[in-house]
Specification:
Oligomer: single chain
Number of helices: 9
Strand content: 5-15%
Distance between the termini: 34 Å
Order of helices and strands: EHEHEEEHHHHEHHH
Helix content: 40-55%
Structural class: alpha/beta
Largest sheet: 4 strands, parallel
Length: 263
């Protein structure tokens, strides 16, 4: 089968509080009615490979599918090629973003709920949740995670996530969003001509944008008791490893990209 007979789909693995809304709005400007956003009515559900196949076949003209509930691997079948894209974020800095978004924007908790209370609640939750495990679980092979429990995030899952990040055609970092968007467009423009159009994404749902990562991580530490902070770091260690590795991979790829366009 020739490339001209293939239908390409940009699959956005929209991880909560990882600049997904900003990315989606930029894609919507470019793809318009060729973009499908899909989540089930159950916010805790995950979309299987078979279900994603059904979604794509129900929307055969879509070149973008975005969902908070999809993972990897992407489906593989005749004449359709999925190109997964995801953004990763500093896990500690992410904590404060999740807390303020759920408290101040979504109004899911009262004004008296402190970050200490919020982090402890999520630490005590055995399920993969907004704060702990979601980045790993989203980009690892979902077939290793049957019940969406944090104790399923074994070394095998961590290695799977690392492998999928390192072999992905492209991914982004929230703290380098503009560079990430530029690089993603560069890597995928041969499959999606829409990505050749000049566009500057408008950031959405960015809490405390004036603070840098160092300020935000310090803010998290100062908002927690020493014990809770230590437990949080221990729980986040696999995702910290993933993020720090992703930083190195992205830096190398972006440098090579700049050398290529300047040559």
């Amino acid at each position: 089968m020739t490339d001209s007979n293939l239908h390409h789909v940009l699959l956005h693995l929209h991880i909560f509080k990882n600049a997904g809304t900003t990315f989606d709005r930029a894609l919507l400007k470019l793809f318009n009615d060729k973009m499908t956003a899909y989540d089930t009515e159950d916010p805790g559900a995950r979309i299987s490979i078979e279900h994603l196949t059904e979604i794509q076949r129900a929307n055969p003209s879509s070149n973008v599918i975005t969902s908070h509930q999809v993972g990897l691997p992407a489906p593989v079948y005749s004449n359709v090629v999925f190109h997964p894209v995801f953004f990763l974020r500093n896990p500690v800095e992410r904590i404060q973003s999740c807390y303020h978004f759920e408290k101040d924007v979504q109004k899911l908790m009262g004004d008296d709920v402190t970050m200490e209370m919020y982090v402890r609640r999520n630490l005590n939750n055995p399920k993969i949740n907004a704060c702990f495990g979601i980045q790993l679980a989203t980009i690892a092979d979902s077939r290793y995670i049957i019940n969406w429990n944090r104790d399923e995030l074994t070394g095998v899952v961590v290695n799977s996530a690392l492998h999928n990040m390192q072999t992905a055609r492209c991914f982004g970092l929230v703290d380098r969003f503009d560079e990430s968007f530029e690089f993603i467009c560069h890597r995928l423009k041969n499959y999606f001509p829409e990505l050749r159009q000049p566009i500057t994404p408008t950031q959405q749902n960015i809490s405390e944008a004036s603070k840098n990562i160092s300020d935000k991580t310090k803010y998290v530490q100062e908002s927690l008791s020493p014990q809770t902070y230590a437990e949080m770091l221990a729980a986040l260690q696999p995702e910290i490893t993933l993020y720090e590795t992703a930083q190195r991979v992205f830096e190398n790829r972006y440098k090579q990209y700049l050398q290529q366009i300047r040559a």
